[in-house]
Amino acid sequence: MVRSKNTLTLIATVLAISCIVIMFLLGFWQLDRKSEKEARLEQISQRQESNPLRLEDLIDNPEKFVDFPLMLTGELSNQTFFIDNKLKNGVAGYEVLSTLRSDYGVVLINLGWVPGTGDRSRLPEIILPNTSEHLGLVYVPQDNIMVSETNSNYGRFPVVLQQIDIAEIEQHLGEDVLPFTLRLNANESTPFLRQWEVVNMPPERHLGYAIQWFGLGVAGLTVFLLTIMKSMQRR
Fold it and tell me: How much is the pTM?
């Protein structure tokens, strides 16, 4: 009986210590994430201050030039793509992509966000920017394997897609598309909202999570030590 009780006490002790260690490790991990996000934001700030690139500077390796400014000249096509399920301040809407044909292939121009109509069968009406110069930042879309595409009405515009899928867009256009998008700079005169999300979580939130984990770790350690002290006093 005593041996069984000692075994249970040992198991409980190991579990308690393990949980406390994990909570502190999670706190330090959140601090590391905070440092990574700060470094990322600093990198973005430095890149955005660079002189605008030319298209030929980045076509071979666009990922190397993510967040750098890029200036393109040309007319936008009315072959538009609406990227679904984009929320801004709790409002459902779309990011709207137009196309610009260059000597190196089709470039996707992200015009920004517009609110939905409230009717899934009716898309918002948009007016393309009346300019031939397009200044923005280079962005390479990431494929989300959890999102499956449902629109197969190839060649019929406008097109609603669940994400920016270059291969899918090429099928709709019937031609090659360069593997990046140009996120246009903010402009008060446009109806498109251009508040681009450069990091999915700000550094301050990681700091908040770290404080929570450290707080839980300290609380758990305090309870554990008090329990040990009371157990020793009973002996």
Answer: 0.77
